[in-house]
Amino acid sequence: xxxxLTEDQSEMQxxxxxxxxxxxxxxxxxxxLAAQHSIKQVGLLLIAFDNPGNPLTAPDDHATxxxxxxxxxxxxxxRDSDTVVRMNGGEMAVLLPSVNGPEDVVLVANKILSKLxxxxxxxxxxxxxxxxxxxxxxxxxxxxxNILMQRADLALTVAKQKRNPYVLYSSEHTRVSRAPxxxxxxxxxxxxxxxxxxxxxxxxxxxxxxxGVEVLTRWQHPDLGLISPDDFIPVAERTxxxxxxTLWVLQQGLLQCRAWNxxxxxxxxxxxLSMWNLESPELPDQxxxxxxxxxxxxxxxxxxxxxxxxxxxxxxxxRTLTLIRDLGVxxxxxxxxTGYSSLAxxxxxxxxxxxxxxxFVLNMEYDRDNAVIVRSITDLGHNLxxxxxxxxVETFESKEMLKAFDCDEAQGYYYSRPIxxxxxxxLLTESATTLCRHVETAEDLSKVSAVIGGxxxxxxxSKV
Length: 464
Ligand code: G
Ligand code: G
Ligand code: MN
Fold this sequence. Notes:
This protein has about 475 residues and is an alpha/beta fold. The protein has two domains: about 10-175, Alpha-Beta Plaits; about 185-460, EAL domain (TIM Barrel, Alpha-Beta Barrel). The protein is about 40% helix and about 20% strand. The protein contains 18 helices and 17 strands. It has helices at about 20-35, 65-75, 100-115, 145-160, 185-190, 230-240, 240-260, 275-280, 285-295, 305-310, 315-325, 345, 360, 370-385, 395-405, 420-430, 430-435, 440-445; strands spanning about 40-50, 85, 90-100, 120, 125, 130-140, 165-170, 195-205, 210-220, 225, 270, 300-305, 330-335, 355, 385-390, 410, 460. An eight-stranded mixed beta barrel has the order 8-9-11-12-13-14-15-16, surrounded by four helices. Strand 8 and strand 9 (about 210-220) form a beta hairpin. It starts with 19 loop residues before the first helix and ends in a 5-residue tail after the last strand. It binds guanosine-5'-monophosphate (2 copies) and manganese (II) ion. The site of one guanosine-5'-monophosphate (G) has 12 residues, from strand 9, helix 6 and helix 7. One guanosine-5'-monophosphate (G) binds near residues 200, 334, 362, 394 and 413.
């Protein structure tokens, strides 16, 4: 049952004052009313844009032209009976008032994606467009227009976080906060020292030495409190601020690394890169400059990249990665197992390790499938000559299983949460007796003699 709505219909006349969001909500309600009496469903798609962070092409500079162009593209692929509205915050909403089910909506989503992803040229500047779609359906996901909107919005948040082109709402998606962060605030945060770094150790499973630390960024916002990178990294990516932000993280992380090395703690630091970092042609030179200025040997730096960051533009990623690898810097694939790429393909890239995603590790002692996945990734990684690191190691049992699987390194709350540099220094230089409170077995106790700061790195004593 199609309810074609046009601006000149009488019931629409009083909505001209409404924002895009208001018009859309009204139309969703009307479509639901119409569909209640038919076997048809209503599809809702929310679209956001995750555009490459070249500061010159930051969407803010050309917001109007950009949104105009996207709206035209959407109109061209959709039927006249479908509604397309520009929402607050640069997002778009699409209403499909009459579909047969999720398959139909996914088909339309794919059509939309391939149209929107075509490169765009504004004022001679070539922009790459990376849309993310969140999808919800009436009546499957809710019979209430407001809740349906919220569910499509939640699916969109998940799509952004997972960097998936589209996500269909599922009841398993938990509410994640979408802090109303603005670009100007984040820019200010970098200048005003509101960002700070936490460090989480990676431990060699064979001898318990700490081989390195992952650097994780946090934002202490003056009003909103502590903000997670899951909330501000996407803002940084959308606005191009990810470039200065990452350079700041690299610089601070390298300075901290040098300080540890000077103290005799043989640690390396791992910094997370996002897709837009790999698309910046200056990155290799900038990293070379930072290594030189901080005096840290290149082999003490590791860069973590996700599968999706590489798959955005594999050829370009390959070139950037090779240039940086040639400096002597190592790469790790982060969150491995959550993307769609094969390890065999990734091996063509100059990477040296894989980090198994924490979703497989967190409950591996109870979930046989996850244990099998962890073991298989470990074997496959080893057969391809890669070091294998498990993330999200929270328990003694999972640590023991990983040791039995011959996994190389572990990272997780079992050893330490991400903590400030001074706390990590303290943890690594505390006497072994102090750490004995964590000892689980007599056998562990005998290993507490591990040396602090040897060539194998620092040690977490009892936590071997
Ligand atoms: O530390 P936490 O679990 O909250 O991190 C959440 C996510 O944010 C992780 O995926 C992590 O890789 C990412 N992240 C943390 N710090 C940085 C950073 O400095 N740069 C980038 N690109 N991602 C980061
Ligand atoms: O995506 P990335 O691997 O960069 O994210 C690393 C983040 O994972 C850390 O910043 C931390 O917040 C989170 N993390 C680290 N160890 C554990 C763990 O043992 N359990 C859980 N649930 N999260 C962890
Ligand atoms: Mn990481």
